[in-house]
Design brief:
Elements: E1 2-3, H1 9-15, E2 23-31, E3 34-43, E4 49-64, E5 80-85, E6 88-93, H2 99-102, E7 108-119
Antiparallel strand pairs: 1-7, 2-3, 3-4, 4-7, 5-6, 6-7
Length: 121
């Protein structure tokens, strides 16, 4: 897995089109401090082919999760939010711009670090 830094984040989000119309495939709690989210998304760097992206969040500060059986019901037309604020990374459904508003999302994860791994669709 590769760490995702604050500097690399804008290019990462552009590459995956802010995850508009992506699909959240699973949310796995590895331990109380580590969670993984698997997403199917289109990759702009590969001619918009679909791929699977595994995001690993470490040192979880706060989270609101939904059951994996309900993931297919999430409307991803607004994409996903992923941003750094106060040395933390926030990840959630829909479009939000600060940590206070992220907590209004259907599901969110706030952690101190993130790594990612690309896989086949």
């Amino acid at each position: 897995m590769k760490p995702l830094t604050k500097k690399e984040l804008p290019a990462f989000l552009q590459r995956f089109g802010n995850f508009v119309d992506a699909e959240v495939r699973s949310i796995d709690v590895i331990s109380p401090s580590i969670m993984q989210v698997v997403i199917a998304a289109q990759d702009g760097a590969r001619g918009f082919d679909w791929l699977t992206l595994n995001l690993e969040f470490s040192n979880i500060i706060d989270a609101k999760l939904i059951d994996n059986s309900k993931l297919s019901l999430i409307d991803m037309s607004e994409g996903m939010t992923l941003f750094f604020e106060d040395d933390n990374i926030a990840f959630c459904t829909d479009a939000y711009d600060n940590l206070a508003n992220v907590k209004n999302a259907l599901f969110y994860i706030i952690s101190s670090s993130i790594k990612y791994e690309e896989g086949s669709f």
